[in-house]
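REVIEWER CHECKLIST
Item 1: Sequence provided? yes
Item 2: Single chain? yes
Item 3: Sequence as submitted:
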Amino acid sequence: MIRVLGRRWRFKYSEVNTETARPAFDRQVRAFGQQSTLDLSQLRIGVVGCGETGSAVAALLARIGGRHLALFDTDFIDETNLNRLHFSTRTDANLRRLKVDVLGEAIAGIGLPISVARIPQHVEDIEARDALKSCDVLFGCTDDHLGRNVLNRLAHFYFVPIIDLGLLIDPRSGGGYDAFDGRVTVVRPGSPCQVCRGLFKSDIMLDEGLRRKDPAVYEQRRRAGYVADAADPSPVVITFTTEVATMAVNELFQRLNVFRGDNGAASERVRRFDEVKEADLLPSGKSRPGCKLRDRRRYVARGDMDPFLDTTS
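Item 4: Structure as written out by the authors:
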């Protein structure tokens, strides 16, 4: 695989598998043409973090023609995941199953030709390195600073593009929000890196590393006041994490088929969910004179009648 990463991402591979032009992708091919679907079938795509955004990203990739996926996550399903993780069930929570297993089995169950590598390792672990380096594209769906640092450096050392996702919901005590942002950042040489953007901090990375590798020392530091006590869990709502996942997958589509035009790619895209944008508004329309539903107020809250809904009028 040869990667050419500019405004448009082009991939050169020795064998083109035309099997992806199957009926399941007919409508997608009608929208974008065949090439981007063929490219997706060849790419080795990694999803780092299989939580709220990661499970949605993996599900979307599976349904748009991705055929080689690698899932990275060490975490287990519990009851707090059931309203946020795609494919998770009560049985999974009761058995404390690995997220990569639950998501991998669900994707296989879709019935499309997909291979899924399940890697229950942190991305900074030695066991994850070969899989990371073999990916052609990686989606960063983790909120830990250690993981973001590894992906940030990987993008530059190995020229593997990273599509990093984030959602920040910060409610005000008196109502409203200080932040309600979905973010998609594309990390690659030539664009500002994650350190430049201030998306992770070295002191938090140190604490995360100690907590994983030397819990006793981490606990000593915490008791001595060198580690801030863990904050309450961040607010998360599945509709918005899924929308951020869609933004991220569409950013990959833009690189493959430039559906927004040659200048439609962005190194970072932020959507403020609590604001009304002009692009979201459409003309409200006008009632036609003589409209049977609008002008005949007798139908308002009428309820049951014969014929049902007065379909003869």
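Item 5: Key structural point noted by reviewer: Residues 46 and 204 are 25 Å apart (CA to CA).
Item 6: Recommendation: ____
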